[in-house]
Every structure is written in C-alpha cells, then in structure tokens.
C-alpha cells in the first residue's frame, strides 16, 4: 500500500479535529475533536514506521505513548466537564470562564510572611 493513502486519511482526520475544536462550543465535542487529532498523529506514526521498516518499531512505540497520554487527557477532561455541568447545568465552553478566580481577589497570606 502506498504511503500517500494513510497520510491523506490522517490529514482529513486532523482537519476535522481542528474544525471541531475551533467551531464548536460544547466541551464534549471539543474533547472528541482533540481525540481525532491525536488519532491522526497516531496514524502518521504507524504509517511512517511501516514505511521505514527499521526493526525498532519506534513509530508504534510512540503511538502507544500517545494513546496513554490521550487516555489520561480524556479522564481529566471529562472530570472538568462534569464539574462544569454540575455547577452550571450545561457544558458550554464559553461558560468555563466562570471557573477561574477573579483578578481583584488577593491571594491568602501565610503565617511565615508576616
């Protein structure tokens, strides 16, 4: 199989992921789009590893690390989405700005600084 076919599929997946992250406001849809981008990277890694054939399987090893990183990212992302849904009743990404601290609050002082 030529190398161009998996690369074109990876480009299409990555473009769909970028569109989903930039155009959507739903946090779950943004997480799914980010996963699409990571899967496109994995497809590139495995395709180039199969094309290069060096015996070390570095592309496949890196793909396993990316899958592990994606699993950790989706766990943390879903925890943030659940926190947002419990607090506001929706998962709109624009409403996530309410989660940060107001700028006019002073940080707590510790006893060592006094």
From TrEMBL:
Its EC number is 7.1.1.-. It is a multi-pass membrane protein. It comes from the Bacteria. The chain crosses the membrane at residues 62-85. Keywords: Cell membrane, Membrane, NAD, Quinone, Translocase, Transmembrane, Transmembrane helix, Transport. Pfam families: Oxidored_q2. It catalyses: a quinone + NADH + 5 H(+)(in) = a quinol + NAD(+) + 4 H(+)(out). It is found in: Cell membrane; Membrane. NDH-1 shuttles electrons from NADH, via FMN and iron-sulfur (Fe-S) centers, to quinones in the respiratory chain. The immediate electron acceptor for the enzyme in this species is believed to be a menaquinone. Couples the redox reaction to proton translocation (for every two electrons transferred, four hydrogen ions are translocated across the cytoplasmic membrane), and thus conserves the redox energy in a proton gradient. NDH-1 is composed of 14 different subunits. Subunits NuoA, H, J, K, L, M, N constitute the membrane sector of the complex. HAMAP family: NDH1_NuoK (MF_01456). Belongs to the complex I subunit 4L family. This is NADH-quinone oxidoreductase subunit K. It comes from Kribbella sancticallisti. The lineage of its organism: Bacteria, Bacillati, Actinomycetota, Actinomycetes, Propionibacteriales.
